[in-house]
Protein 1
Amino acid sequence: MARIVQKFGGTSVGDVERIKNVALKVKAEVDRGNEVAVVLSAMAGETNRLVDLVGQMGKLYDAREYDVVVATGEQVTVGLLALALQDLGISARSWLGWQIPVQTDDVHGKARIENIDAAELDRRMKLGEVPVVAGFQGLGEKNRITTLGRGGSDTSAVALAAALGADRCDIYTDVDGVYTSDPRIVTKARKLDKITYEEMLEMASLGAKVLQTRAVEMAMKYGQRLQVLSSFEDKPGTLVVDEDEIVEQEIVSGIAYSRDEAKITLVRVSDKPGVAAAIFGPLADANVNVDMIVQNESVGGNATDLTFTVARDDLNRAVATIEKLNTVIGYAKLLSDPNVVKISVVGVGMRSHAGVAQRMFAALAEKGINIQVISTSEIKVSVLIDEQYTELALRALHTAYGLDAA
Amino acid sequence: MARIVQKFGGTSVGDVERIKNVALKVKAEVDRGNEVAVVLSAMAGETNRLVDLVGQMGKLYDAREYDVVVATGEQVTVGLLALALQDLGISARSWLGWQIPVQTDDVHGKARIENIDAAELDRRMKLGEVPVVAGFQGLGEKNRITTLGRGGSDTSAVALAAALGADRCDIYTDVDGVYTSDPRIVTKARKLDKITYEEMLEMASLGAKVLQTRAVEMAMKYGQRLQVLSSFEDKPGTLVVDEDEIVEQEIVSGIAYSRDEAKITLVRVSDKPGVAAAIFGPLADANVNVDMIVQNESVGGNATDLTFTVARDDLNRAVATIEKLNTVIGYAKLLSDPNVVKISVVGVGMRSHAGVAQRMFAALAEKGINIQVISTSEIKVSVLIDEQYTELALRALHTAYGLDAA
């Protein structure tokens, strides 16, 4: 007997028939003799509909009321699934964030889970009841509903799994696992049987939108075994586990990409101490996240060219912030370009292998693709290139690292 | 300064523009220097949509999960209105049943309010904040969401008004008040300025679907002044008040009707003690409400004809229940007829005036309308007639009692 938390996303509970299909998936796990808890998202499209209603209410924005409205999406699906499970003869009841409670901080709209009191759920699961828990929502310190931010149901599931001491947290979604690259672009991409938390974190934050980053971080922190699998097919997915569990580690596990990038270059910034702080401090204050940064010597001495990337949605805000600073920092020209993509080679194996980055640069050069910015970490190498080469670069790198399916 | 509870029904909050219109109605009351609390229904059609989803989940029906799902409708509207009010510069926040709490019994799907802890709302209203309260929902004894049954938001509003010691509870709806009869049928119907609780109760339960019966009962119990008025027009509605407040009382205040009736006649039931109990006991056990009852001597001695009415939806269940009893009670024939209507003349003034019923019988006779069953109370006379004469009867009676608009 194992204890399993199953999480189903919005497309998996998108309509009445799909919710009944989810009930069958839960029943299959119960029939295997396992203790099961379920975490659900809202029906696909419902959260967007609710967010849109909130947006139409006026210029002012009270995140506490936003949370009241959008949390209803999950409340509907947990009630419906509890009924569908009961109809299959399974003892089940719905749980809302405030009922458990899933205690969070008071940052409405993107709250963080602080504690889950799982004692009552634990007791009921031992008696054979299946708790059906609303993902994405919690209870703030002032007895008001909070939500965790978009995609937060993955985090709810992992946190609940950790609190319940679950053997596995299964994230059911509309893909059947984590691939070596985006299979819509790289037809030779392969599904991975296992991936480490660290790699998954890089894949998730780099744009392979399978799992929410915070959920992977939390799983890593608690050593919670995760599985990503399809709710529409009946086969194993990809296990996200500790590095120790993977015996034969590949050097590179996957090639990820992110189109959510924009590049800013400040030409001939004066090259003196404190300039970087004068630029990135105000950007941080304006809530702009800066990702890659490179600084080159400029042609005309005493000055330098500074290039960095921001989220594409933040580009206008970033440019406006910097233009206000021109008298302070002094630059010759500001160039911005939203038509870039970040391509990343990810693998824990590269820690112990040299030449991984070099192979990347060679493969791109061979296709005539110019690298604009490079950044590296212990387990990844990322480059920024012109967006029009996205597909070409992904396929070339996938082949270069020997990832192509036979 | 007065303290007012404003309740807006589903059509009044049916879309974004209408919710903003509601915010203006609330602001107008605040601008008059009044303390205001608001109670809302779900957007028109939303509760039906949710009930339909629940119905599709299977044969089993857990009213606790039904409540979880359908309570979301009001949760959405209170969040949205709080935002719309804030956008107008009014301090406002939403309150869900479990947050106040609105304590109810555990009869899920049609719970009764047991207590409202209004201390915190009272404190905030004194500071100028407008509580926006989800109608229709409460918190049961086991920390689960309950709902009050369809139309329960009126009851929520009256209960909240009583708990807050409000000077008036304004029920905004899609009609502009209580009329002497249904204005869609009786074009000469007049809007009443005032009506007593007792009359309103008869009008409401007899089919003038302006106010929920339980809400009127509760208002009467607590002496809570009510006003029914339109959310789409800016003019006074109808006040529902104590009899003492109405100086010049008409003998008859209105002519109501209900199509939700069906007639059952048992021909030649043996005329002996205990027969009525043998029939109406099992009907009560089958949850069938019996309304009008008449018993006539049958032609062939020692037996009697028994006629009574039930809700039209309950007719099949009532007939099935009685047919099972035939060996016990013994009747010659069971006749049933769903094509009947109940017409009622209502007025507290008839307590002190004779001849009210007679005028009704004469007016109907003059139009050649046969009366099938009669029942009377202190303040009303009801007759059951063939449904095809509904409009004719209503207009004739409206004229006969001098209610026609000049």
Protein 2
Amino acid sequence: MAVHLITGGAGFVAVNLTRQLLQRGESVLAIDNLSRGRREFLREFSNSNGFVFVEMDCADGSQFLPLIESFHSRQRISEVWHLAANSDIPAGVSNPRIDLKDTFLTTFETLLLMRDLEIPILHFASSSAVYGDLKDLAISETSGPAAPISNYGAMKLASEAQIRAAAECFLERANIFRFPNVVGTPATHGVILDLIRKARTTPSGFEVLGDGTQRKIYLHVDDLVEAMLCIRDQSKDRYSVFNIGPSDDGITVREIAESVRDEVAPHAKIRYGVGNKGWVGDVPTFRYAVEKVSSLGWTPRLGSKEAVRGAVKQIAAVELR
Amino acid sequence: MAVHLITGGAGFVAVNLTRQLLQRGESVLAIDNLSRGRREFLREFSNSNGFVFVEMDCADGSQFLPLIESFHSRQRISEVWHLAANSDIPAGVSNPRIDLKDTFLTTFETLLLMRDLEIPILHFASSSAVYGDLKDLAISETSGPAAPISNYGAMKLASEAQIRAAAECFLERANIFRFPNVVGTPATHGVILDLIRKARTTPSGFEVLGDGTQRKIYLHVDDLVEAMLCIRDQSKDRYSVFNIGPSDDGITVREIAESVRDEVAPHAKIRYGVGNKGWVGDVPTFRYAVEKVSSLGWTPRLGSKEAVRGAVKQIAAVELR
């Protein structure tokens, strides 16, 4: 069976992906610097023979390469899921070095490693943020020119550019997944978690960034992982880019806040801010064209509304404990 | 008069730009780590009051920021020409850390500096290499998606992505110049210099990478600098991208080799290699749509053929000394 290296292996998406890979009987080497991922998320895999976790920063090539090389010499890694990144967009706005190191340099070092160890297949977690604030009715993989307006989106696009060049040079296959907002458990950050915490702290009322009209699309992590595996199994191109998301027109921050209120603090008064951007570089609205991944046979089980409602219930239940 | 900071200030393009800026009566602070640029190129400015050169690596933020800050407190810098980059594409193929440091991290540190010192205007030397091997008849600024096939092109596109995000956040104006192959003096690298040196070393015959059918467009540096200044004076958008080049369909490597032979070693036999790519990541053919810069009133004086012929004569004359 295949041996998978997952960077950012203790993060939200990685944990859900690992669960599916192990169920398929495959092996996973997860590495994570635990800056946002958490060791406790991996507890469910502790009795699994096919699972190994190493705490390590993959932006540090001098540590990363020798360690993976030693593992690789015993158990040949056939593909890499590069999920390590700074997922906290506002943090990258205030300190661009975070996005540089955690999002860009992790990609750079992962590619060097793959070249040196001759690992042929890469799957990369990119983002809808690479597109920026396009005025297209529906954003497809060829929409553009890609013009990211956040440092986060810039470092994701910058990572894609490196991978594109590596696909010309030494990779046999590279799948680029452009994620929308993804929700579910174990949540480490994001609007739902923030609002649940606020509502729990002050059940009488809580504040929302922006005026609440901001509309975005959301995908449940279960649907995301299914799409990633569908692409992994079926796409044979040397380099391909896939939007992954629902095809609906999303859900507003107001609707999310109301979902949280209904679940966590039914008597809370929701206070809204001004403007429809939550922070500099936040993209207010878009729709996703997902015909390309649909043509491989994948469709999401949940639309944006159902994904958010489901995630609110799941996160609220976990956060209660 | 404006005070200009030029990174890569001892390089080929920078020297030609500096000459024009000083002639306009403006001031130039040139910085360069002298990895490819040369101090001797700056000799002509040594009696100029408006010119200061500092040897420094702008990828090293801990050195770069304090030095520029101290200068800036005495003479306010109003715009930056970020020309520092690794221009040796094959070097970046064999060691990607060169492109990372010299092309990408120089951009990262330049942007941090501009944010911290509140310098509002950036001009950036990008490249046609960001497009990759597009099949378009003529490549315009909105052609794409940009899919660089060299590490060099990837780091230029990655730099553009960062600048795009910075334009959203703190820059007042950013002009992205996508250069084609640029020729003229003082040459530091490139096909003409390589062939002249080969022909001088063995006047009986010399070798050419690839089969000689590879066709590319070339711009003379005098035309390039005129275009950059035209855009600088006229473009007022917050973020804009310009192809700069001739609109012809270029010149083949065979024609370049023959120009060199005629100028330097009339009896040399030219030996060709195999294939139409000189190295991995080399883009064999393209044409450039330059309507956008033309609409500002610029047209090149020389087409690809004349630019190359002129440069062969200039470089051969300099290299003789």
